[in-house]
Structure formats: C-alpha cells, structure tokens
Design a protein that fits this description.
heterodimer; A: about 170 residues; alpha+beta; Alpha-Beta Plaits; 5 helices; B: alpha/beta; Rossmann fold; six-stranded parallel beta sheet; 23 helices
C-alpha cells in the first residue's frame, strides 16, 4: 500500500542520499520522491510516496537520521496532493484539434508545439493527470516526465468535517 | 588571533573532547593531521591494519565507557575501517573515526587513494560528515562526539580532505549544539512506567530480559536493585553479560541459540517479559512467532525504532535504561517484594536439572570449556575478557562468571571474526591496570594476529588464549549437525606454530595440550607482565557448543547435547 510522507529535513549535503539509501536498505520501496526548499531557511521538505505494509518502522528508521527533523504522514482526505507532468503527444496536423480539445478540458497547457507533436504541461491531482494520460495515450505518447508527488496537510483547524470535504 | 592549520584545529578539537589515546594508521591524505599529534597530549597507537585500529577504538570504548577514536587515511585506509564501523553500529559502540580524503579539487576524479568514504560508510555509521570548511572543524568534532556517545551510542565518521587539513584557520571554540533532528529521549513516559509496575506486580512468571543497553547506560546498579525489589529472575544477553551478576541467585545466564536451558525455558513459560536494552535479536528469539508465546511484553529502549521492530510490546517505554530503571524503582515505591515461591522454585528446578555441562576426562583431549573455567578460577574472575566470534566466544560467555559490567567485550551483532586481539589491545590501552585476557579461536586469531606486533611495540601487555582446534569451529559444528559431516572449507589444519609466531611478534608464546598443563600454563601467563603473552590451548576439535536452538527454530526445542534433545509442548505451563 502507498503512503505519503512529508519529511522536514536540514538542507545538508547528502541528505537526499541518506534518506533514499535508508529506505532501500530497510527494504521499503520508493514510489516517488520530490524535494525542494521549504518555508524555513536551511530546511528542505521531501514528499515521499513509499510502498510499505505499515508505516511505523519507516517513520522510526527515518527519525534515526540526524538531519531528519519532522515526519508527517499525510492522509489522502486531509491533505492536498499535486503533481506536474510534461508529456509529448504525437499530433500530426490532421489530429491536432482532437488532442487540443482533450487538453483544454484538463487545463493542460501546450508548452511546445512541433510539426508532428505537442508537449503538454499538466498539473493537478495525481488521478487527474493519469486520466489525461490515458485519454491521450491512443494518439501516441512519445515521451513523458512527472515531477513526483508534492503534498501539504490541509488546514483543518476549527472546520466542520463536512466543510473539510468541500475544501 | 593565532592562526593554525585545519589539522592543528582537528587535533586541538580532539584534545578539547578529552581524547587521551587514538588508534590509527597514517597515509598520504591524513599526513597533515599526524604532524600536530607529536605536539599534543594524545597518545597515538600505530595499528598494523586500519581494521585493527577500529576494533581497538571499540575495545577502548567498551572497557572505559568513553568514546574511542581511530584515524585512517583516504581510500583503502577508510575502506579498511568499514568492518569496525559496521560492528560498532550493530553493537552500539561509541567511536569517532577520522579519515583523510584527497584534496577537495580532486574529489570525484578517481584520484590516487580516493574512495567515496562518506557514501560507503553512510549505512555503517550513526552519522558522518564530509568537512568542507576548516573553521567548522572544532564544532563538527564536538557534534560527532555528542552523537557518538548519547542516545543509542554508535560510530560517527569525519572525512577531511587534505586541503582542508592544510588550510589556514583560527580556533573556533565549539558552541552549543544545534541539532534539531537529534534529541534522544532519556526519561520514560511516567504513565507507561506506572503501567509497567502494575503489570510486574501482577505477573506470576515474570522474566527480566536485559542486554547491552544496561551496560551502555551504566545501569547495572539500578538493574540489581530493581530485580531484587521485584524478585524477578534475570537473563542477560550476549551483549549484556555482566549487566547482572552471574553469582546472584536471580541470575539465569544467557538466553538464545546457545543460552542456558533455564533462561530459554523461563522466557518460553513467562507471562511477562520485562525487556530492557535488548532488541529481540534473531539469535535470542529463534523463530519470533514462537518466542515467549505466553508473555506480555514491556520493552524499554533508548532507540524508538527497536520498539515494535520484531515484537509489538504491550507497554513500550522509550528512554535510557538507567533512567527508566530509576523511574521503575521509584514507581514501585513501598510495595512489598513478592515471594513468587512457585516460579522461583520452577526456575531452580530447571537450573538443577539442566545446568551447562561438559566432560573433561583427565587423560582425554583438552576441552575448551575446561580452559575457560580454569582461567576464571585462577584469575578469580578479575579480568576483562575479550572474545572473537564462534565456538570459543560462546564457551567464554557460558563458562565465565560475569559479575560486573564492562568486563566482557565481544562482537555480537555483526559477528566479526578477528575482533578479539585488537579489541583486547584497545581495552588494555584504556585500562592499563586491569588484566585483559582475550579468549580467541585459531580461525579468528589468524585474521588479525598481526596487531600483537602493535601491542608488543607500544607496550600494551595483553594476554591471548587461543582455543586451537584447527578448524572454523562453529562452521564445522553446523556442518556436523546440518550438512551431514561434509566439512567444506572449514578445516584450517595445524600448520601454525603459535609459540614461534608469538615470539616472532615480540610476545611470549606458551602452549598447553593436556588438562594437567592448563593451570600451570595459565599461572605462567599471569606472571609475565612486561610483554603480551599468547597461550595456545590445543583443544578437542570435535567439541560442540550446547545447548543449541537451531537458527530460525523454536525455543521450545532445545538440543542439550550430541544425543539429548528436549522438546517442550508450548502449551505446558509450570
């Protein structure tokens, strides 16, 4: 089962290697990993999607790393998860409008157009990105790259559960 | 402000941390750091191999309770340290390793003697550093010592490129540590402590299962008070031997694969396992699903990741073993000490019926267990005993009576053959007034014996008893039991004259091959204190270690001897 972890780490050389090597060494499979600067100077935030039957050991082992400051498990219904995909779709002149029509429904932006292909940038929930991918796949996907998932916890303070669902 | 080199700052930083001795081997990249050692208060012991230097630092740390220091150069120097680092990580030994590195500009270019030391040692250390700024050296050394010695202790490595060692800097006195991701818990949660005390008071067949965590936390005194206060029998793991006195009426000896029948069975029949500073290692549990099947578990450990890793406890307590024991004693308060008459009598019955045993016939081949017992008798047990890995290690642990902590040093988790000789040298260097007697096997001895040259040269008079059976004993034992007596690659032969080898290395060599020679030879070894002494005991190659629970088996199925096996129904309760 996939779990999403938000890991707050010191921005020190090698910290990414420490985290990924620890997960590999302890037998946990990384589904995706995204890392970048955080809201605090000198600190980075990693979003790790990890395949593991249970998370307790993953969290405890990660906590043993000196540069790991905080680990939060993000539950899907209480967090915002986003991903960016760049995908180059085969689109010869006759089929372009079909592809662009699908893209406009998904708010995918054509960021590079060639004689026989269009490269789209699509951002949003991972499920939405996958839906888009499935719809353009029949046209021929030439290349694609995903950013890996990034996620933040929702602000649930003082909100009714029902409102949260709308959020 | 006086300027100095990074290397001078490094050595001054080590002095600042209280380092009195360092074990190492110099080489190109670390040369700048060796020069200021001459002007420092640090004694440097020149090991013959970096692995030896690392194990010496471990032996020093075990015996003294202080942080051990080892130094090596880049490339092969650093890779030779990997085994001791992995060993120290497994056994939670506080050491700091200093390695030289090729100059920053050459890093990544496959320079001469370049290895990616921080990458290679990442999974073999508690933490490591690649130093890029000479101004930071004192602070990073301070951090390294703090991380190595606090929480669950372990090895920390600092990798220093040669240009950083040669760079000009000034002394920056270490300031308060800023380690937001490193805050070990010391005190246990008071609610959990109270819960634990209630369970202990209510238990009918409790067992204290304690290990190296007690020794690391210097908690042997608290453990003894708590065991006596609650009247609970105690089993000490291989890493915890000496945490509780073997001579104490509550002591049951070692659990696990080669533990005593009593300790193994008491755990299996227990209704409450009070586990402190242990990690439910597979050598203790066998098949974890059949381990202590009737017991609720209280698990105290300073490392939260150990709690629930193998066995999910009913009461988890994260904290330092000594601090939590003090809390448990306080929470126990004025409660009367339970009688536990039936349980204590049951345990005594097992001890009576199934003691550790062996047979030494007066004219038969010499038994290694007899040698251990004679060593213990003649020294009065007043020695630091250091073992390698294998049969001799198990016999030493079984037949030596450990009554104090830090008197038993061995490689438990990693099982590093060749550990004994260098670790004994480190222990003796740290505790020069103590008798340090290594009990080694011939297979182990041949892996690191050259460090005896270090001992002879540097005036570190250790004593080494070699249990020479001419074979890799534990491998042979498994081949005898599980591989139909097919002795593939386990027979070492008897080519080595250990007396001559010892003499060639500047030591005294002695030899005993019959029971009546054992005592006088030990006496003689004890009378020589100006040089290291090697004593070869020619022992029976067919002797096996018992009791034995085969790897992955159930602790309800104990092989007591070559022809005797006790299988207890898991449902039978005393």
């Amino acid at each position: 089962m996939n779990h999403t972890l938000s890991v707050f780490v010191e921005d020190k050389p090698g910290v990414l290697a420490r985290v990924s090597s620890l997960l590999a060494r302890r037998g946990f499979n990384i589904h995706s990993l995204a890392v970048g600067p955080s809201h605090e100077d000198g600190m980075s935030k990693m979003t790790i999607v990890v395949e593991a039957p249970e998370l307790e050991q993953v969290k405890k082992q990660l906590h043993k790393l000196v540069n790991v400051v905080k680990i939060t498990e993000l539950e899907p219904d209480q967090s915002i998860e986003r991903e960016v995909m760049l995908v180059r779709v085969s689109a010869a002149s006759g089929r372009r409008s079909d592809v662009l029509e699908i893209a406009s429904i998904f708010k995918a932006v054509a960021v590079d157009v060639g004689h026989n292909s269009i490269c789209f940038q699509v951002a949003g929930e991972p499920a939405k990105i996958n839906d888009f991918l499935e719809l353009v796949r029949p046209y021929g996907v030439i290349d694609l790259v995903k950013s890996g998932r990034v996620a933040l916890a929702r602000d649930t303070k003082g909100k009714q559960p029902r409102l949260r669902a709308v959020n | 402000m006086t300027t100095m080199t990074g290397a001078q700052a490094l050595i001054k930083a080590l002095e600042h941390e209280g380092v009195d001795i360092a074990f190492g081997v110099p080489g190109g990249a670390i040369l700048p750091a060796y020069d200021p050692i001459l002007d420092s208060s640090i004694r440097h012991v020149l090991a013959r191999h970096e692995q030896g230097a690392g194990h010496m630092a471990e032996g020093y740390a075990w015996a003294t309770g202080k942080v051990g220091v080892c130094i090596a150069t880049s490339g092969p120097g650093a890779t030779n340290l990997v085994t001791p680092l992995a060993d120290a990580l497994m056994d939670s030994v506080p050491i700091v390793a200093i390695t030289g590195q090729v100059p920053t500009g050459a890093v990544g270019n496959d320079a001469f003697q370049e290895a990616y030391t921080t990458g290679i040692t990442m999974p073999a250390t508690k933490h490591n550093y690649f130093v890029t700024d000479p101004d930071e050296i004192p602070q990073l050394v301070h951090e390294a010592f703090h991380i190595a010695s606090t929480g669950r202790p372990g090895p920390v490595l600092l990798d220093l490129p040669k240009d950083i060692l040669n760079a000009t800097t000034t002394w920056h006195t270490p300031v308060d540590l800023s380690l937001p991701g490193y805050r070990p818990t010391v005190d246990g949660h008071p609610l959990r402590v109270r819960e634990a005390v209630e369970m202990i008071a209510a238990a009918e067949r409790p067992v204290l299962y304690v290990g190296g965590g007690i020794i690391k936390a210097n908690g042997a005194g608290e453990l003894r008070r708590f065991a006596e206060l609650t009247n609970v029998p105690v089993t000490t793991t291989l890493m915890g031997r000496g945490a509780f006195p073997d001579a104490h009426p509550l002591a049951m000896g070692m659990p696990g694969m080669h533990g005593t029948y009593t300790a193994i069975t008491a755990i299996q029949k227990s209704d409450l396992l009070i586990s402190i500073g242990v990690r439910f290692d597979d050598r203790v549990t066998g098949n974890p699903s059949t381990f202590a099947p009737h017991a609720k578990v209280i698990h105290v450990d300073v490392d939260p990741a150990e709690i629930g890793k193998v066995r999910v406890p009913e009461v988890p307590i994260v904290g330092d073993a000594r601090a939590v024991l003090a809390q448990l004693i306080e929470a126990w308060g004025e409660r009367p000490t339970p009688e536990r008459t039936a349980w204590r009598e049951t345990v005594r019955g097992w001890q009576r019926d199934h003691p550790l045993r062996y047979q030494q016939s007066p004219d038969g081949p010499l038994k290694p267990q007899y040698v251990v017992e004679e060593l213990h008798r003649i020294t009065g047990g007043d020695a630091i005993v250091v073992a390698g890995v294998g049969q001799h290690q198990m016999w030493a642990s079984q037949f030596w009576q450990f009554n104090h902590p830090r008197r038993w040093i061995n490689s438990g988790g990693l099982g590093t053959m060749g550990f004994a000789v260098p670790a004994a040298i480190g222990a003796k260097a740290g505790m020069p007034d103590e008798l340090v007697y290594a009990i080694d096997g011939d297979g182990c001895f041949q892996m690191t014996s050259q460090e005896l040259i270090t001992a002879a040269t540097d005036g570190i008079p250790v004593k080494v008893a070699i249990m020479n059976n001419g074979v890799h004993g534990m491998v042979t034992q498994w081949q005898r039991l599980f591989y139909n007596n097919r002795f593939s690659a386990s027979q070492l032969g008897n080519m080595v004259d250990y007396v001559k080898l010892a003499e060639a290395m500047g030591c005294v060599g002695l030899r005993a091959d019959s029971p009546d020679e054992v005592a006088p030879t030990i006496e003689k070894s004890l009378s020589i204190n100006d040089r290291p002494v090697v004593v070869e005991f020619v022992v029976d190659p067919e002797e096996m270690v018992f009791p034995m629970v085969p790897a992955g088996g159930s602790n309800d199925d104990v092989i007591l001897g070559p022809t005797e096996r006790v299988i207890t129904a898991a449902s039978d309760l005393p």
